[in-house]
From TrEMBL:
<keyword id="KW-0805">Transcription regulation</keyword>
<dbReference type="InterPro" id="IPR041916">
    <property type="entry name" value="Anti_sigma_zinc_sf"/>
</dbReference>
<dbReference type="InterPro" id="IPR027383">
    <property type="entry name" value="Znf_put"/>
</dbReference>
<keyword id="KW-0804">Transcription</keyword>
<feature type="region of interest" description="Disordered">
    <location>
        <begin position="1"/>
        <end position="23"/>
    </location>
</feature>
<feature type="compositionally biased region" description="Low complexity">
    <location>
        <begin position="80"/>
        <end position="92"/>
    </location>
</feature>
<feature type="domain" description="Putative zinc-finger">
    <location>
        <begin position="9"/>
        <end position="36"/>
    </location>
</feature>
<feature type="region of interest" description="Disordered">
    <location>
        <begin position="79"/>
        <end position="110"/>
    </location>
</feature>
<feature type="compositionally biased region" description="Polar residues">
    <location>
        <begin position="100"/>
        <end position="110"/>
    </location>
</feature>
<protein>
    <submittedName>
        <fullName>Zf-HC2 domain-containing protein</fullName>
    </submittedName>
</protein>
<dbReference type="Pfam" id="PF13490">
    <property type="entry name" value="zf-HC2"/>
</dbReference>
Amino acid sequence: MTHLSQATLTAVADGELPAGSQQRVEKHLYTCSRCQHELVLLRNVRSRLRLLEPPTPPGDLAHRLMSLAAAMGPLDEHSPLLGSSIPLGSGSARLGQYPESPTTPGEQSL
């Protein structure tokens, strides 16, 4: 049996499932106890996360962001922010791009 991907189950738990996928996903969830169980776990995690206090940003966050912006220099029509590389820890990311959610064999995405 093919199971729903983690990304699809997360979209269901978050209430963000695209309308075109709703019927197919609901049909699968009706018959698949494994995916039902995973969805219950995701919803439980969401409920517990809502109970946590939001993190408090460091007091110097605004200063650090302003320093970073100043070091980058002014932006103009030839240097759009989207597509810029920003170092993140040991790697880098490109703004405006999100990594694909990996699926394992036997899972299907939206």
